[in-house]
């Protein structure tokens, strides 16, 4: 698998490669190279994915990306990291960050990822799925890898139900450790077997890894909130 990253928020000018014509040329060249590799080793070559920014919002921008994806025959990673701060200093941070920390956050530059990205990821997955399916009627389905803010099995389920084929986990794994995957599998099982999707709403106050009622300067020692505790609170 080869991932073409045109979404890095920390590389000046890189996101300009997402413009339709430039993206088509870039992806076409990578796909041709992958096919040559496949021919040399006797298989189809590595699959090619393109990782796009979550900061493009206009339908025309998304449509240009989708056309490039469909024409080149690649798959797409949606979400990733944002340069914007208005999405990450809203309700999800209330009670978690102090006023001073919020001000610092709003002034930061560079990429931002984590749980606050989830609503944006969910929205983009739905929009990209609709556009991709509309342009590939009767053709091969273009896979969507949802990446950005997925921290629970319920959120993974929501991403998949919006049209993603794969739910990717990054920040959750960093802060939750190897047990994160086991926890999310358990939550997925509960969500599919017992129809507990409402329980997995992404912005209920105690759905994160750390109890947001703890003062900001004590978050490092805050206890993790287990699935059983959240179920009791919800029920």
What does this molecule look like?
This protein is an alpha/beta fold and about 240 residues long. It has eight helices and five strands, in the order E-H-E-H-E-H-H-E-H-E-H-H-H. A five-stranded parallel β-sheet has the order 1-2-3-4-5. Helix 1 (about 20-40) runs parallel beside helix 2 and helix 2 (about 60-70) crosses helix 4.
Quick tags:
alpha/beta, five-stranded parallel β-sheet, 8 helices, disordered C terminus
Percent helix, as a range, is: 40-55%
Radius of gyration: 19 Å
Number of helices: 8
How are strands sequenced across the largest beta sheet? Answer: 1-2-3-4-5
Shape: globular
Q: Which H/E pattern describes the elements? A: EHEHEHHEHEHHH
What's the total number of strands? Answer: 5
pLDDT < 50 runs, ≥5 residues: 194-235
Biggest beta-sheet profile: 5 strands, parallel
The overall pLDDT, averaged over residues, is 76
Cα separation of the termini? 43 Å
């Amino acid at each position: 698998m080869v991932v073409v990253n045109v979404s890095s928020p920390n590389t000046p000018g890189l996101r300009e490669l997402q413009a339709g014509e430039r993206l088509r040329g870039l992806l076409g060249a990578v796909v041709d190279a992958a096919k040559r590799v496949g021919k040399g080793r006797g298989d189809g070559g590595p699959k090619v994915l393109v990782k796009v920014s979550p900061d493009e919002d206009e339908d025309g921008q998304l449509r240009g990306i989708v056309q490039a994806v469909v024409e080149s025959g690649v798959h797409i990673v949606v979400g990733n990291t944002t340069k914007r701060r208005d999405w990450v200093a809203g309700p999800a941070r209330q009670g978690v960050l102090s006023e001073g920390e919020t001000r610092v956050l709003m002034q930061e530059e560079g990429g931002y990822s984590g749980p606050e990205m989830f609503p944006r990821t969910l929205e983009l997955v739905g929009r990209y799925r609709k556009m991709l399916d509309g342009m590939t009627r009767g053709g091969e389905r273009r896979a969507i890898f949802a990446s950005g803010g997925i921290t629970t099995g319920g959120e993974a389920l929501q991403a998949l139900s919006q049209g993603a084929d794969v739910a990717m986990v990054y920040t959750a794994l960093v802060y939750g450790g190897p047990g994160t995957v086991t926890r999310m599998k358990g939550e997925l099982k509960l969500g599919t077997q017992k129809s507990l999707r409402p329980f997995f709403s992404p912005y209920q106050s105690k759905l994160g890894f750390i109890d947001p009622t703890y003062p900001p300067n004590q978050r490092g020692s805050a206890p993790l909130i287990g699935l059983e505790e959240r179920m009791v609170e919800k029920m």
